[in-house]
């Protein structure tokens, strides 16, 4: 890869379940050639961002993008089947309640509407270009097109780039109900964020996705070229064959035996499509029946009903909770590509956990109705680095632990965090020590920055069942080691991670409403330098990631209680002063009041001497 542009890497985040999303929007243009970039290393940059959550809980992955000046942050579904990036607009009258506030064009000094022209569909007033996208699960999104600065987070050394995006004015179906704000379109098309960045020459014509495993989730996304692992498996992807990212799948093997189906089955309609916006895998009827029968014949476990009686899921019980042991009960599955290369799938690439029966799993492969397209969703790519090498018209697969991608892949020229120079240029994403723990040692925060909460994930080498009784003790230990009050420590989540436990912790501010920069940097320093002293019964620990979020409370919110108490005290003192003054005046008036000589008054008894 010498002489080629470097990569831009974005972390992916995971969000609410959407198992039926199949993003097949209209495709404006199909290109028979690939763009050729001038190979000038100075003209490109890298960006590192994370993926969050897990496939079963949420159904899709999201990443964080910042749009506008100052930046407005959004959680966007990473979708290789969509060609438009869009977020809810402040003027939207038919948008659901999502994770973040809607985009406010008037609050961005760099926002510009895309003016109406001959090559776009215009709004009713013929002033601004519009977009509309409809999806296979009958949801839709429509709105106007705008252009603004798009930022990729503090872990990126890629400068904010101007890009066209959709400002939603209407959404229906799953898009209306989902927790995520919108979509980040990575498909082929003029409005795709990939195409726009490639046209600017800031990245190579390639991007990658790496999804975490069954119990871990998270992962990373890479925009741009990266060093290729030597044992990566490639499949040809023909942009002329269909506008979607397709591969030349020729067959499926279950436990060493190839399914008795014609290779042409996988070439119907759009062919075999990879779609990160889809949760599971969907096969044409003949392929699904052959796969289902082979799996049921090879799995030596009791078949049980699925978690939802409305669906005829194929589920099995008795496999236990340890994902690393699933290969003892479920067969290995191979995908055969046209050039003879083989992609091996482990059980987590075609199974999902039964939500109601412990130790039970269900097939995450379904029949694609009467559609002849083979659709491979995110489940196929768990713990697999997938490189969409658009320039060379191929897609690569490399089995890896995606939560440890940076250490295992060892990116060439991985960027250091961009410096924080001003309040306007700052975003709330802080570099994660999972990428480079040493980066935090010289890290600083702007003096005006107010830290609202510090979150971090710790992996312990003890099993979840052994850890659960010591939650309170663990909380006290964290508070003691980080030198904060125990009331500030919140354990947000406990997750079983193979033979270990993954814990998400948060440090909240005390009564002041924010954590001082000095205290925040002290906490981060102790975490990243592995200075926590935990007892032996907690096993070994490792820091997975950390993040600093700004305080969202204004000066009035922080000091409101004190202000109210102060006003109340002043009013009470004033009231007491008025009362005392009133009675004093009454008493003074009674003692020295003038009485007429003829005025009658009660006789008073003489007091004894």
UniProtKB/TrEMBL annotation:
Residues 61-398 form the Peptidase A1 domain. Keywords: Aspartyl protease, Glycoprotein, Hydrolase, Membrane, Protease, Transmembrane, Transmembrane helix. The keyword Cell wall biogenesis/degradation does not apply. GO terms for biological process: proteolysis. It comes from the Eukaryota. InterPro entries: Aspartic_peptidase_A1 (IPR001461), Aspartic_peptidase_AS (IPR001969), Pepsin-like_plant (IPR034161), PEPTIDASE_A1 (IPR033121), Peptidase_aspartic_dom_sf (IPR021109), TAXi_C (IPR032799), TAXi_N (IPR032861). GO terms for molecular function: aspartic-type endopeptidase activity. It holds the Pfam family TAXi_C. The chain crosses the membrane at residues 560-584. Gene3D superfamilies: Acid Proteases. The active site is at 79, 275. Signal peptide: none annotated. Belongs to the peptidase A1 family. This is Peptidase A1 domain-containing protein. It comes from Dendrobium nobile.
């Amino acid at each position: 890869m010498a002489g080629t542009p470097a990569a831009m890497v974005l972390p992916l985040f995971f969000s609410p379940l959407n198992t039926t999303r199949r993003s097949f929007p209209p495709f404006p243009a199909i290109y028979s050639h690939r763009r050729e970039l001038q190979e000038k290393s100075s003209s490109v940059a890298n960006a590192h961002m994370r993926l969050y959550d897990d496939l079963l809980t949420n159904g899709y992955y999201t990443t964080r993008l910042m749009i506008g000046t100052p930046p407005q942050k959004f959680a966007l579904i990473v979708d290789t089947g969509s060609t438009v990036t869009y977020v809810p607009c402040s003027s939207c009258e038919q948008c659901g309640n999502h994770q973040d506030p809607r985009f406010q064009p008037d609050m961005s000094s760099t926002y510009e509407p895309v003016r109406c022209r001959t090559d776009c569909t215009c709004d009713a007033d013929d002033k601004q270009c519009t977009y509309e996208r409809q999806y296979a699960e009958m949801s839709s999104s429509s709105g106007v097109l705008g252009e603004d600065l798009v930022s990729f987070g503090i872990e990126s050394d890629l400068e904010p780039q101007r890009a066209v995006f959709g400002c939603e004015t209407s959404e229906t179906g799953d898009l209306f109900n989902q927790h995520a704000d919108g979509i980040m379109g990575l498909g082929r098309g003029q409005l795709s964020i990939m195409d726009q960045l490639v046209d600017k020459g800031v990245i190579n014509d390639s991007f990658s996705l790496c999804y975490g495993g069954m119990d871990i989730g998270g992962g990373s996304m890479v925009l741009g070229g990266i060093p290729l692992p030597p044992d990566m498996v490639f499949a040809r992807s023909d942009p002329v064959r269909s506008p979607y990212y397709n591969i030349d799948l020729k067959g499926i093997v279950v436990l060493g035996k190839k399914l008795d189906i014609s290779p042409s089955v996988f070439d119907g309609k759009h062919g075999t499509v990879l779609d990160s916006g889809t949760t599971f895998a969907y096969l044409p009827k003949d392929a699904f029946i052959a796969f289902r029968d082979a799996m049921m014949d090879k799995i030596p476990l009791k078949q049980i009903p699925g978690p939802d009686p409305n669906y005829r899921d194929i589920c099995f019980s008795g496999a236990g909770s340890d994902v690393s042991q699933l290969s003892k009960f479920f067969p290995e599955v191979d995908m055969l590509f046209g050039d003879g290369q083989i992609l091996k799938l482990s059980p987590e690439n075609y199974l999902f956990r039964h939500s109601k029966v412990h130790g039970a799993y269900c097939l995450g492969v379904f029949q694609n109705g009467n559609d002849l397209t083979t659709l491979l969703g995110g489940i196929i790519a768990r713990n697999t680095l997938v490189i969409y090498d658009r320039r060379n018209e191929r897609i690569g697969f490399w089995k890896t632990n995606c939560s440890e991608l940076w250490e295992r892949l060892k990116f060439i020229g991985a960027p250091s965090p961009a410096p924080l120079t001003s309040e306007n240029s700052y975003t709330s994403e802080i570099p994660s020590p999972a990428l480079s723990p040493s980066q935090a040692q010289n890290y600083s925060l702007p003096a005006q920055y107010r830290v609202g909460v510090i979150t971090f994930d710790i992996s312990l080498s003890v099993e979840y069942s052994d850890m659960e009784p010591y939650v309170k003790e663990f909380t006290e230990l964290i508070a003691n080691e980080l030198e904060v009050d125990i009331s500030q420590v919140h354990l947000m989540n406990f997750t079983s991670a193979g033979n270990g436990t993954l814990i998400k912790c948060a440090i909240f501010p005390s009564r002041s409403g924010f954590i001082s920069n000095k205290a925040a940097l002290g906490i981060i320093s102790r975490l990243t330098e592995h200075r926590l002293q935990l007892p032996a019964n907690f096993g070994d620990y490792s820091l997975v990631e950390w993040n600093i979020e700004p305080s969202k409370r204004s000066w009035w919110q922080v000091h409101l209680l004190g202000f109210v108490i102060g006003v109340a005290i002043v009013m009470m003192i004033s009231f007491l002063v008025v009362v005392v003054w009133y009675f004093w005046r009454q008493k003074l008036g009674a003692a020295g009041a003038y009485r007429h000589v003829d005025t009658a008054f009660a006789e008073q008894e003489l007091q004894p001497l």
